[in-house]
Amino acid sequence: MVAMDFRIATSDDVPLLAKMNRYLVQDEGHRNAGMTLVQLTDRMRAFLESEYQAVIFETDGEPVAYALFRPQGDAIHLRQFYVVREHRRRGLGRQAIDILRQRVWAAGRRVTVGVLTKNEKGIAFWRALGFTDYALELESPPGGAPPQSL
Ligand SMILES: CC(C)(COP(=O)(O)OP(=O)(O)OC[C@H]1O[C@@H](n2cnc3c(N)ncnc32)[C@H](O)[C@@H]1OP(=O)(O)O)[C@@H](O)C(=O)NCCC(=O)NCCS
Q: What is the position in ligand 1's atom list of the atom closest to the CA of 78?
């Protein structure tokens, strides 16, 4: 197993987190892929000034992953989770979630995560870690669905 360090992010880490967030929205095919780095930076700063916390994971002193989460009722809601592209499929994502569960999050907390339906790799990852279906979010296009013909 690769030696992995972790630290709770501070406001100094906002630029780094925003850069990784930009790759995350691209990789998961999110609509926010149109947000600029400045917008993502402002949003990340606002997250960290609210109840969100971020953890940065490093190997050999280099950032390889991050998680952004907040407490939500009896659960931890994981809003963003990202492993740097060239470090994937080496077990780092799994190891990072183990670290969060064992050393960052209070023991026994339920964990929820939202994944875009078309993010098949992300879904495969969470399933491999034992996550199961809990809720389904639906949407209607702006202006509502086209009228059904009788
Ligand atoms: C999804 C993501 C976090 C996985 O990180 P990772 O470090 O590559 O994952 P791991 O190496 O720990 O993989 C653990 C298991 O998850 C599954 N898995 C991971 N990536 C997968 C992929 N691309 N396709 C299919 N299964 C995958 C596998 O079962 C894997 O075990 P294996 O390698 O022994 O087969 C990473 O690809 C990523 O950051 N993607 C972009 C952002 C994203 O989609 N985040 C999650 C949605 S919020």
A: 48
